[in-house]
Amino acid sequence: MSEEKEVSRRDFLGVSILVMGGLIGLGFLVPAIAYIIGPALGRKESQEWIRLGSTSKVEVGTPTLFKVKIEQQTGWIVNEEELSVYVLTEDGREYIAMSNVCTHLGCRVRWISDENKFFCPCHNAIFDERGFVVSGPPPNPLYRYEVMVEEDQLFIKEI
Fold first, then answer.
1. pLDDT tens digits for 99-149?
2. How many angstroms separate the CA atoms of 11 and 73, rounded?
3. Total domain count for the chain?
4. 3-state DSSP: the chain helix, strand, coil percent, rounded to 5?
5. 9, 60: one domain
6. pTM for the whole structure
7. Which residues are registered as beta bridge partners of 157?
8. How many H helices and E strands in the chain?
9. Does residue 82 share a domain with residue 8?
């Protein structure tokens, strides 16, 4: 024969309070964990196109500097930085977008129109108008961006 044991009111209330407290604790704990761990696990699968400006600003045969502010998110920290890009066109239809950062030590290059070259003052590096190394220590040409033109607006995306 089985004996049935009555549950006292005190035991019932104790277990009920413990269960409710556990549910309330989970209600706070799960979002807190998602807030802390979520940004580290989240990754952008596709990069967004960055609008530079109008194609009318680019002179044929002369690299034109565009500056745009972008936000980059690392985890839950958002940084705003300025991106500088030189855009070149030879025919007004095809565009090349190049970084203004030297591939040697990361110095900023500048376009010298009188001499038709990019110059990096750190180690006297010289790049041609298409960003290829002419002289100096840089191991690679200037970094290129993928370019898209839509309704006379230039957009870039990292390759």
1. 989 888 888 999 988 888 999 988 889 998 888 999 988 889 999 999 888
2. 51
3. 2
4. 25, 40, 40
5. no
6. 0.67
7. 146
8. 1, 10
9. no
- 38 and 60 housed in the same domain: no
The whole-chain average pLDDT of the chain stands at 85
Each residue's pLDDT tens digit, 39-91: 667 655 456 888 888 888 888 888 989 998 888 777 778 888 888 899 998 88
The confidence score (pLDDT) of residue 6 equals: 85
Provide the domain limits for residue 75. 50-158
In terms of domains, do 7 and 69 share one? no
Residue 67 and residue 21 share a domain: no
Q: In this structure, what are the phi and psi dihedrals at residue 32, rounded to the nearest 5 degrees?
A: -65, -45
Co-location of 36 and 64 in the same domain = no
Cα torsion through 100, 102, 106, 109, rounded to 10: -50
Same domain, 34 and 61: no
* Separation in Å, CA 6 to CA 10, 90, 96, 103: 11, 91, 83, 80
116, amino acid identity: N
User: What pLDDT score was predicted for residue 77?
Assistant: 81
Statement to judge: residues 93 and 142 lie in one domain = yes
Q: At 99, list the tokens.
A: 């970084």
